[in-house]
Amino acid sequence: MMMRPIWLMGLEIALAICLSGAPVFAGDKHDTHIENGSKIMITSPKDGDKVGDNFELKYEVTEAAQVGHVHVFVDNEYQRGFQGTLKGLSRGPHQITVKTTNKDHSSVTAAHAITVDVQ
């Protein structure tokens, strides 16, 4: 039996992750940051939680000088004017993502994503 080189197996795994559509961030899923020291973490609800169609989203930001503000996304759709509560989500799974940006919106400084199941 012929074994594939280890680098090829690593490449195959990386390609499978990219093609799966799952978000890939620096750090682990629950504590993501980018090398500038910025950090954001969704604290409530937790990844995998069952929630109602209206729920409060809580997150913590460790601000570095580059962080201007936070953007919230549901299923990759920007939630303009987000005021702390997500409302009227349809039943089923939804990906919730928070991203910090610098003041002029030119780059994301940190991001964190979870999936919730709306009941």
| Number of DSSP helical runs | 1
Percent in helix: 10-25%
Q: How many distinct domains?
A: 1
Give the uncertain stretches in residue-range form: 14-31
Describe this structure in words.
By secondary structure, the chain is mostly beta strands. It has one domain: Sandwich (Immunoglobulin-like). Helix content is 12%, strand content 43%. The chain has one helix and eleven strands; from the N terminus they run H-E-E-E-E-E-E-E-E-E-E-E. The chain has one helix at 6-19; strands at 27-28, 31-33, 39-44, 50-51, 55-56, 58-62, 69-74, 77-78, 85-86, 92-101, 108-118. A five-stranded mixed β-sheet has the order 4-11-10-7-8, with no helix packed on it. It has a four-stranded antiparallel β-sheet with strand order 1-2-3-6, with no helix packed on it. Strand 1 (27-28) and strand 2 (31-33) form a beta hairpin. The longest helix has 14 residues, at 6-19. The N and C termini lie far apart (49 Å). Mean pLDDT is 78; it is low at 14-31.
Provide the fold topology.
Blueprint: H1 6-19, E1 27-28, E2 31-33, E3 39-44, E4 50-51, E5 55-56, E6 58-62, E7 69-74, E8 77-78, E9 85-86, E10 92-101, E11 108-118
Parallel strand pairs: 4-11
Antiparallel strand pairs: 1-2, 2-3, 3-6, 5-9, 7-8, 7-10, 10-11
